[in-house]
Amino acid sequence: HSVVRNALFCLETAANEKENHVYTKALMAYAFALAGKEEKRKALLDSLEKEAVKKDGSVHWQRPGREPEADLPYYRYRAPSAEVEMTAYVLLAHLTTQPAPSQQELSFASLIAKWISGQQNPNGGFSSTQVSCFPPG
């Protein structure tokens, strides 16, 4: 389909930009994974790994210039929803590859999944990026 081909060309052009935001890279890595563009997927994941926050046996990504998380006793920090979302896209990009992900990718993906699962609220959900137009109740 010409629309998909044109969209992929647009993404490939954007992926070559020097200053892509970490969120944009995460989305593009997943898009290229879905499109079967392995070389582009791998290049973006390599770039993203350099920007990863590796802490407490887990891996995640955060927006540049964000305030550092509070390290207080009895307080469990939960990342903003945009950071959970972009980290989830990186996880999907690692797992969406043909042939199946390598053992190294699966090991790295498990560190990402560990961080994501730690962001769940007490009800098992996550904070939302969606804004409700209706008041609760």
TrEMBL record:
Name the coiled-coil region(s). Answer: none
Q: Which GO terms describe its cellular component?
A: extracellular space
What InterPro entries does the record point to? A2M/Complement_sys, Alpha-macroglobulin_TED, Terpenoid_cyclase/PrenylTrfase
Ranges where the Alpha-macroglobulin-like TED domain occurs: 2-130
Please identify the protein, giving its name as recorded. PZP protein
The opening ranks of the lineage are: Eukaryota, Metazoa, Chordata, Craniata, Vertebrata
- Gene this protein is translated from: Pzp
